[in-house]
Amino acid sequence: MIYRFRLKKENLKKYIEWLIENYEVWGPAKVHGETVFTILKSADEFVDERTLLGPKELLFPRKENIFSPDSDIKERVVIGVRSCDLRGYAMLDDIFLSGIYRDEKYEKRRKNTYFINFVCKEPCEYGFCTTFYGPRLKDHFYMQFMDLGEYYLVEAVDKKLIKDDLFEPADEKDLELAEKIEKEFYEKMKPLNIENLHKKLDWNNPLWKEFAERCISCGACNFACPTCFCFDVYDEGDERYREWDSCILEGFTRLAGGLNPRPTLDLRLRQRFLHKLKFHYENYGYYLCTGCGRCIEVCPVKIDIRDVIRSVGK
Amino acid sequence: MIPVKSRIIDMWNETPDTKSILIEDTIGKEPLPGQFYLLSVKGYGEIPVSVASWKEGLLFTIKKVGHVTGALHKMKRNDEIGIRGPYGKGFPIKENVTLIAGGIGIPPARAYIEYSLSRGMYKLQLLYGARSPRDLVYKDLLDEWKKYFDVQVTVDVGDENWKGHVGVVTTLFKYIKDKDSYFYLIGPTAMLKNAVIELQKMGVSPDKIYLSLERHMKCGIGICGHCNIGRYYVCKDGPVFRYSDIMDIPELFF
């Protein structure tokens, strides 16, 4: 069941103030000129802008002491996350909350974090979300805001964060308008062909070597990605830390003694792309990518995952 | 990912660079041959080690190669150690098995042999290769096992007292007694690669060959990504794989 409401744009600030009164609220704000996710102290700080990095750290911290006791994570709201990022976090759930392992801290953070995603009005420079889930999610959201001009169409899976005096019911015409805007977005950002991509992608794609000539092995692509989940584990004193890791780095697969199954950059780039577009599909039935384009945006040499997708079926 | 506290019951030298460590099984879940534990040394980290035996505790035989194994070698009786496991998929239990072990690949072979013998399954053969006579581990056991099944041992380089075979482990393949048996291979990547080539030349089908793979591991439970090969995670889907399931993965051997 999805509840649908309207929120007048002039009421967004009032709504965010109400959220701030009741929860810890995170959202995009200008910090030293950059738009980043931060705790909002007032609604005035909020800007409806796409950030360079999504708020993945709120679920999966960059570095975490795994020996420290379960901290009390209070209920918090993250407003202004983009649909591409949020959809990626649903994929993290499949890693940390299923299979043979349930990450208790992740689970607690997940349960206590309410994401309010904003549907992008215009395609971004490197994004290709229409290839996967598009700017307006059909599922895997909690509360979704879509700009319809004078007001937002608000889609919510429960009414916990609906403030009755600010929200009014949406009607059929709102949905029609939303679909029209969505259609126009898809016209501007044509989906890439991903039919059977996981079967067509070849271990021996010539792109790996081409990319390797340019790649500087910085790992920025991994750190900007909403779906990358690989991590390192290491000790510092008596504490043990889990920290984001990067499959592009030379030491990622190196064994004690020095042997390395992936000693060269082309092999590591192959791993990155095949994991996302082949292996993960074989294991989970979906691609480990939401088309957010952040890996392209942050890459100093503009290695483009879209080239990998386009390289098959030619 | 939090280790269970345990302690070292006993430890002794096997070779100049290899020690056996007997650890109290504070987890109490019986492993299967080919499975591994993560051993945790505070301040140094964790490493995956295949379990060699579990009669009076968990026995691990560890060659000193890096940071954590170096720390393990310096530990002593009654020291605290963390354990997690048993993890991964071990060797399938079959009636008729030829075990091929190279170097520090012998502990999982020992686990399989002890498991089989304790269940009255004697259709085994062991081919074991080490660098030199002084690098052979479990020397007493090798003689003991000869009472029950054929054991062939070779060294890359002999010494003045060595009267056995000299050469890499694949040079022992002419002594293989049953080409229709299952073949369980444990050892360094170069050995595994040559062994599967030679076995297939002898007509052994890839679906009767099982390999225990070694990869860099961190979490041990199939999420951290380090041990990924193709769609598999060596820690969760392996470390023992049927060769026919993984033979098309280009980075299988390196």
Description:
The complex is a heterodimer of chains A (314) and B (254). With 314 residues, chain A is α/β, with parallel strands linked by helices. Chain A has two domains: 3-188, no CATH class; 197-311, no CATH class. Helices cover 32% and strands 20% of the residues of chain A. Chain A has helices at 12-22, 83-96, 104-112, 172-188, 197-200, 207-214, 220-224, 265-284, 294-298, 305-311, and strands spanning 3-8, 24-31, 34-39, 63-65, 76-82, 113-118, 143-147, 151-156, 167-169, 231-236, 239-244. In chain A, the strands form two sheets. An eight-stranded mixed sheet of chain A has the order 3-2-5-6-7-8-1-9, with helices on both faces. A three-stranded antiparallel sheet of chain A has the order 4-11-10, with no helix packed on it. In chain A, strand 2 (24-31) and strand 3 (34-39) form a beta hairpin. In chain A, helix 6 (207-214) crosses helix 8. Chain A is globular and about 65 Å long. The mean pLDDT of chain A is 95. Chain B has 254 residues and is α/β, with parallel strands linked by helices. Chain B has two domains: 4-87, Translation factors (Elongation Factor Tu (Ef-tu), domain 3, Beta Barrel), CATH 2.40.30; 97-212, Rossmann fold (3-Layer(aba) Sandwich), CATH 3.40.50. Chain B is built from six helices and 15 strands. In chain B, the strands form three sheets. A seven-stranded mixed sheet of chain B has the order 10-9-8-7-11-12-15, with helices on both faces. A six-stranded antiparallel sheet of chain B has the order 4-3-6-1-2-5. In chain B, strand 1 (4-15) and strand 2 (18-23) form a beta hairpin. The longest helix of chain B is centred in the last third of the chain and has 13 residues, at 189-201. Chains A and B meet through strand 10 and helix 8 of A and strand 4, helix 1 and strand 13 of B.
